[in-house]
């Protein structure tokens, strides 16, 4: 049996989520836009689900837009606002450690005539507030900075940045795909205008995402998909009711057990990290260890290739760089951004822990890593050259 330590790439579906979805795949199939009784009942249930999601985020029900993924939510927020506000200004700000769903969207907008500032992070993986303040201009319309990074887990000072944005009449979006379910995420406390999250990172299925949009902003977002008046006119297409019911259940569970989950996940991650660092020589953690979500451990194993270790320790499911780019030969843009050693960065692996992991798996994973790191180092030219 493999040991699944890749929960940041995707999470298993929680049984409780699966159960509530089933009726909507079978008998509760009516279209929520239909005006017959069955349609109206589904509409009520869909809107109740919207309310559940809103309540987890501290938002109003009408501020929740269901999308098809975290990537789509990021695109809708960034392109939607950029196009909607282009007469006000054409300057946008982000960081150089964002997920590709954000970075590539900004790169696309550069081709469309927008001017983008990519803020650098320090060696801990955190954006500098003074640099951020200096980057704001008269024509800045939008800032998008992730709440927690998907490769090293570092948490950005989003609350502070959102306040600066509000003082400067600039809109702020945050990608909270990795943060939700690992730390409290409340849009009022954060002060952001838009926030993204995704179902398959919180024990709901793949293919469903959410974008929170501040009520005052909804009229200014240009939709990506035109058609019917679904999702307040921001995303045409008959709603994916079973998945919406599922993501709402996943949110309800987070509301009930965030503390319990984050305590358990943090305990397992810390146990893993402590044993690896103590028992496997020449290993270290990438990024800040204190300002991190509880679930991610990005570890460099010096003198070996991360991919080779994954092949040798094949019982462990984990990632090199970020999972979405694991078919690319380039080293991670995040490790470059934190000035990681260019040779060492090829020996970095991301382990991400979740609700369904246990202590026995963590201990077994460390034992497997210990044995295989030793084997690979015996053959490593980097090691023998030392
Ligand atoms: C920080 C972050 N943003 C966005 C995404 C994209 O989410 P989805 O896979 O739902 O498109 C991911 C997925 O890994 C992510 O980690």
UniProtKB/TrEMBL annotation:
Homology family: Belongs to the class-V pyridoxal-phosphate-dependent aminotransferase family. NifS/IscS subfamily.
Organism, as annotated: Flexistipes sinusarabici (strain ATCC 49648 / DSM 4947 / MAS 10)
Protein name: cysteine desulfurase
Repeat listed as a keyword: no
GO molecular function annotation: cysteine desulfurase activity; iron-sulfur cluster binding; metal ion binding
Pfam families associated with the record: Aminotran_5
Keywords (A to Z) from UniProt: Iron, Iron-sulfur, Metal-binding, Pyridoxal phosphate, Transferase
Keyword Transferase assigned: yes
EC annotation from Swiss-Prot or TrEMBL: 2.8.1.7
Its biological purpose: Catalyzes the removal of elemental sulfur atoms from cysteine to produce alanine. Seems to participate in the biosynthesis of the nitrogenase metalloclusters by providing the inorganic sulfur required for the Fe-S core formation.
Domain annotation Aminotransferase class V: ranges: 3-364
Spans traversing the lipid bilayer: none
InterPro entries, A to Z: Aminotrans_V_dom (IPR000192), Aminotrans_V_PyrdxlP_BS (IPR020578), Cysteine_dSase (IPR016454), PyrdxlP-dep_Trfase (IPR015424), PyrdxlP-dep_Trfase_major (IPR015421), PyrdxlP-dep_Trfase_small (IPR015422)
PROSITE patterns: AA_TRANSFER_CLASS_5
UniProt cofactor(s): pyridoxal 5'-phosphate
Catalytic reaction equation(s): (sulfur carrier)-H + L-cysteine = (sulfur carrier)-SH + L-alanine
């Amino acid at each position: 049996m493999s040991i699944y330590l890749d929960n940041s790439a995707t999470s298993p579906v929680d049984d409780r989520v699966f159960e509530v979805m089933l009726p909507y795949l079978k008998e509760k199939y009516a279209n929520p836009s239909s005006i017959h009784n069955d349609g109206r009942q589904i509409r009520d249930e869909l809107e109740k689900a919207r309310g559940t999601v809103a309540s987890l985020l501290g938002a109003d029900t009408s501020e929740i837009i269901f999308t098809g993924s975290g990537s789509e939510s990021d695109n809708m927020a960034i392109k939607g606002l950029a196009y909607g506000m282009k007469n006000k200004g054409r300057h946008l700000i982000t960081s150089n450690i964002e997920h590709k769903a954000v970075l590539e969207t900004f790169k696309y907008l550069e081709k469309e005539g927008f001017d983008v500032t990519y803020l650098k992070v320090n060696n801990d993986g955190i954006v500098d507030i003074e640099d951020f303040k200096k980057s704001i201009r008269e024509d800045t319309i939008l800032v998008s900075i992730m709440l927690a990074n998907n490769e090293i887990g570092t948490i950005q000072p989003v609350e502070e940045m959102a306040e600066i944005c509000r003082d400067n009449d600039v809109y702020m979006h945050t990608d909270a795909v990795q943060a939700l379910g690992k730390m409290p995420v409340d849009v009022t406390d954060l002060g952001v205008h838009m926030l993204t999250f995704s179902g398959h990172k919180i024990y709901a299925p793949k293919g469903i995402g959410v974008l929170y949009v501040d009520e005052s902003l909804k009229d200014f977002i240009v939709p990506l998909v035109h058609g019917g008046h679904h999702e307040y006119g921001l995303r045409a297409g008959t709603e994916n009711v079973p998945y919406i019911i599922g993501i709402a259940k996943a949110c309800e569970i987070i509301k009930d057990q965030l503390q319990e989950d984050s305590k358990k996940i943090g305990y397992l991650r810390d146990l893993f990290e402590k044993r690896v660092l103590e028992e496997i020589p020449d290993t270290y953690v990438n990024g800040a260890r204190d300002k991190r979500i509880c679930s991610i451990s990005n570890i460099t194993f010096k003198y070996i290739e991360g991919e080779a270790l994954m092949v040798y320790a094949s019982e462990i499911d984990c990632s090199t760089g970020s999972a979405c780019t694991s078919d690319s030969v380039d080293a991670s843009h995040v490790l470059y951004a934190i000035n990681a050693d260019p040779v060492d960065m090829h020996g970095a692996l991301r382990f991400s822990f979740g609700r369904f992991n246990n202590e026995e798996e963590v201990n077994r994973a460390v034992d497997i890593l210990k044995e295989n790191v030793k084997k690979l180092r015996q053959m490593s030219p980097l090691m023998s050259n030392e």
